[in-house]
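Margin note: ligand = hypoxanthine.
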Amino acid sequence: MNGACKQTADWLKQRLPEVPKVALILGTGLNGIAERGRILFQIPYGEIPGFASSTAPSHKGNLILGELGGTKVLYLQGRFHYYEGHPMSAVVFPTRVLASLGVQTLIVTNASGSLREELAPGSIVMLADHINFMGTNPLIGENDGELGERFPSLNEPYDPRYAETCAQIARHEGIPLNKGVYVAVTGPSLETRAECAAFASLGADLVGMSTVPEVIAARHAGMGVLAFSVVTNYSNLFHNEVHSQEEIRANADKASAQLITIITAFVSGLN
Ligand code: HPA
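Resulting structure:
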């Protein structure tokens, strides 16, 4: 895998009209943000050398160069999940390609289950920190020194300056924006009540099946990270119902309009 992300980045550089400073990984409910502004270039993941192909039904798979609030952004519309059977190297490959392209700021979005009663479905939560409970790490294996160091610090995985800017934007727009700790599990089975209680007592506010691998790979490669979660359901801590994919998507869509407002103002300020 070493060097492959650089080769893919070189391949993309020959095709992209330009490489912006900021990129977004779009999770459940946020896919539509790419279509809000002008699309300047679009390519399906299947046509990009080194990219795996997505199997999750709610996730599209396109790399898009678009405009958001007057700023050029790269979108990863859809992601590869570990639970789909992809190796971690494939899960983080697109993130590493962004870094190799020269992208400096990565905004990651996801859907999650709530471990705190006050974080109701439909809430937006900015990640303040995370707990990697996936039992693995995308940096395991030979270190690609061109990307980053062997033992990168995760002292501040989520850039506090970006977080402060977004808190100000949210206040200005009158949008309630919470901060929380995200625990990543592999899935695809949802968490038991005992697991949820354990995660809450460990200090987690949200649980989900993505994001942490990409954030680790992004920080390894020196990108600044901002991440948001859309709460799509209460975890089994508060009930024991089965959540339908339709319910999860409906709650994600509800919060996504407000999240798009925050992200648009944030990327506009990067100009
Ligand atoms: N658990 C794990 N991942 C999730 C959940 C959940 O409750 N909701 C959305 N993604």
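DSSP finds seven helices and nine strands in the chain.
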